[in-house]
Design goal:
The protein has about 260 residues and is of the alpha+beta class. It is about 20% helix and about 55% strand. It is built from four helices and nine strands, in the order ααβββαββββαββ. The protein has an eight-stranded antiparallel β-barrel with strand order 1-2-3-4-5-6-7-9. The longest helix has 19 residues. The two termini are about 65 Å apart.
């Protein structure tokens, strides 16, 4: 009898454990675990553009998820001061004209841009899926040693060179369409599908000679500078005995596109 009672007690004890771990309560524990993960998602990521590296342009982005569907992104990109990209090709394009031949031979270019944007995600999850992002973009180009050649005497045999340089600044607003994918727990892929932007630009470029120019030389230099053509831009030139100045202003636009790889944390 005692043996039967012990067996019955053991059976009842096992049944009580099974009831305590009923499917409903197991689901409850799973929901708690999932809930804890949702309450503390990875809201930050840091990215670098892969496509821009081809042009020596380093584009970095930091993104912070404000809500499940809204993110704040701050981007900074730069090109270290150095030889103008594709300088050989540019020199080949200008080689047909004696006045423009070698204009970029010694030219140097530096670039930096600041781009904040607000992303509105259409997919599920923090910083995931297709998005629409209005943005503002400020860019600055630092250009030096752009060479202009002009005649120094009526026969046109003797030539003089003037190296000019300065800074061009542009401000624009645009709309970025893209998609961001989570490739595992920490790695993300950001695809900038298309991001047209439009705004205004202004630049001043100055060249100073090591001697006073004659009246004839000033006239020839003015002719050379007046032949500069930039689409949709207003160009004003000033020439005096010690050099020249170019003032550029007008609309500015472009399209952002590319692929970035990043880390979530």
């Amino acid at each position: 009898m005692k043996c039967k009672l012990l067996i019955l007690a053991a059976v009842l004890f096992n049944i009580s454990i099974a009831v305590a771990q009923s499917p409903g309560e197991i689901d409850s524990k799973e929901r708690i675990t999932i809930s804890d993960d949702v309450d503390s998602p990875k809201k930050n990521n840091f990215k670098i553009s892969l496509t821009s590296l081809i042009f020596g342009n380093y584009q970095l982005q930091y993104e912070r998820s404000l809500t499940k569907r809204i993110g704040l992104v701050v981007g900074y990109s730069f090109i270290p001061k150095g030889a103008v990209p594709f300088r050989t090709q540019l020199n080949d394009l200008t080689a047909d004209s004696e006045d423009t031949q070698g204009i970029f031979e010694n030219a140097e270019l530096g670039y930096k841009a600041f781009t904040p944007e607000i992303r509105f995600y259409l997919g599920k999850g923090y910083g995931k899926g297709f998005y629409v992002a209005p943005f503002y973009r400020n860019v600055r180009y630092d250009i030096t040693n752009v060479n202009f050649t002009f005649s120094s005497e009526p026969a046109g045999v003797t030539k003089q060179n003037l190296a000019m340089g300065g800074e061009l600044t542009a401000n624009s607003f645009g709309l970025q369409l893209g998609a961001q994918f989570h490739l595992g727990k920490h790695i993300i892929l950001d695809w900038w599908i298309v991001g047209p932007h439009y705004g205004t630009s202004k630049g001043d470029f100055v060249g100073i000679t090591d001697r006073n120019l004659t009246t004839f030389e000033q006239q020839e230099l003015k002719k050379e500078l007046d032949n500069i053509e930039l689409p949709l831009s207003d160009i004003k030139t000033e020439v005096n005995a010690r050099g020249a100045k170019i003032i550029v202003s007008g609309p500015w636009g472009g399209v952002r596109s590319g692929i970035s790889l990043g880390y979530r944390f």
